Amino acid sequence: MQPQLAANPRQMLADIPALSIVSVSHSYGPRRALAGISFTVAPASFTALLGLNGAGKSTLFSLVTRLFGIQTGQISIFGHDIGREPSEALRLMGVVFQPRTLDLDLSVKQNLLYHAALHGIGRGEASRRSLELLSRIGLADRAGSKVRDLSGGQMRRVEIARALLHRPRLLLLDEPTVGLDVKARADILGHVRQLVAEQGIGVLWATHLFDEIVASDDLVVLHQGKMLARGRVSDVVATAGGQDVHSAFMRLTQATGLGGSEP
Is 214 exposed, middle or buried (0-12, 13-18, 19+ CB in 10 A)? Predict the structure, then answer.
């Protein structure tokens, strides 16, 4: 039986995993991309999904967002199974994919309004939310600018704002800082961590960059489709016998015989 939201839905949501992945496997023909992956993302938490290219991170995101159908296992968002209750599940989730998905020839605000319309948000409310979010990310003065005139970091911030327009409680970001300079990366990370702290959003942040992860984060280590570790970063590092995330990752991948390498 699925959890029912009662008089205080925000409190109910706080007691349910933002994201639950149970025994999920996926294959492309004979090639196994994911093998029995299970973990949860708690509300108001930052979970780093760490893996090199080809680890299976994007495949997992495609399953959570229903771009691919689930072959084996179960995925739920705040208790709503994405196969049985897709509308209820997806309305609670925002996504920033690795490839840029903004329309370069539309203005920043037009991109946001178009996305809002897809979620059934009226134009007046959509405009209000758009300006509020743009102010929060420091881009209110660029609302009328064409997206192609923004920097890479600014585009990413707009994509995050767009993902938050329908006020989700779970935010998925797939390698969101790829191609950005050091300052832009730090700005994006700081903004997302602020969302966790101030708005209680649960975040799943996929990355291959060790320096984007801090000791207080939750961590899932994914390598060649297999989950090698999960838990608080400090616990994973200690259990693996490493000095930091980088050394722990190398120990984990070498211990399995799957072969770790520098990203």
Answer: middle
CATH class of 1-92+174-263: alpha beta
Give pLDDT tens digits for 188-239: 999 999 999 999 999 999 999 999 999 999 999 999 999 999 999 999 999 9
Exposure b/e, 75-104, CB count within 10 A at least 16 = b:
bbbbbbbbeeeeebbbbbbbbbbbeeebee
The pLDDT score that the predictor gives to residue 179 is 87
Maximum separation of any 2 CA atoms in the chain, in Å: 56
What's the predicted TM-score (pTM) here? 0.89
Q: Which residues lie closer than 8 Å to 248 by C-beta, 6 or more apart?
A: 229, 236, 237, 240, 241, 242
48 is written with which tokens?
């780093």
Q: What's the token pair of residue 169?
A: 């409680």
CA angle 53, 56, 62 (to 5 degrees): 115
Domain-wise residue ranges, the chain: 1-92+174-263, 102-167
